[in-house]
Amino acid sequence: MNELTGKIALVTGGSRGIGAAIAKRLARAGAVVALTYVEAADQAYAVAKEIEADGGRALVIQADLTRPDAATHAVAQTVRELGGLDILVNNAGFLTYGPLAEVSAEELDSVLAVDIRSVFLAAQAAAPHLGEGGRIISIGSCFNGRVPGENFVLQAMAKSALVGFTKALARELGPRGITATIVDPGPIDTDMNPGDGETADAQRSLTALGRYGQAEDIAAAVAFLAGPGGRYVTGTSLAVDGGYTA
Fold it and tell me: Which first-to-last residue range defines the signal peptide (predicted)?
């Protein structure tokens, strides 16, 4: 399982949950992995230590993606310290709930900064460094295809913006042999959305499989898209949602 040997990957928000699973999965596939964190340095370095214990190499980068320059600096540091970049995984994001009337301007700005602006700026910074076979993979949401109830206006808006952006990226970067894709998770058991949380039963009931997924399910999809199997997949979304959007 060394399909990514010689590749360099950057995973934003890689200190926990889905991001940590992605970082570790790409490393097991042979990639050298950089991962960003905001405040949880101990968790980020724990992920890196696990990667290195398995014989891999990891770089930990502090990056507050609510700041306009953070994504660009993370890409630059990855290229400078690891020698290049082949795979960008835009994973960092907010999981937000609440009715339209209660969304504050500050909350709106934070979500748009991380879920949309940082994705754009990271891709913009990464594109000049990506060669033939380069990958830009963004983590979206099952709300891209279905919004089953109220209180998801901010989440649905922010993640849906990735669809148009990714299609445009695919067209612009395709002639260089670079793909752009989205992985749309359904209910995934993480500390942000635990399988024993208040809304867990309701979320399970909306899936065809009747259960939560695991972070490793999303990581497996990312590894597929990043590897040889994903070379002819671009400009589209892959739903890993247990049938949430069926």
Answer: none
In whole angstroms, give the CA distance from residue 230 to residue 6. 17
Write down the pTM of the prediction.
0.96
Answer for the pair 8, 34: CB distance below 8 angstroms, yes or no: yes
User: Domain for residue 246, yes or no?
Assistant: no
**Which phi and psi angles does 139 have, rounded to 5°?**
-95, 115
Question: Dihedral, CA atoms, 2, 231, 89, 154, nearest 10 degrees?
Answer: -140
**Which CATH number fits the domain that encloses residue 43?**
3.40.50.720
Does the residue 1 lie in any domain?
no
Spatial distance between the Cα atoms of 26 and 46, rounded to a whole number of angstroms: 16
Q: Can you give the residue range of the structural domain that contains 168?
A: 8-240
Look at residue 1 in the predicted model and tell me its pLDDT: 64
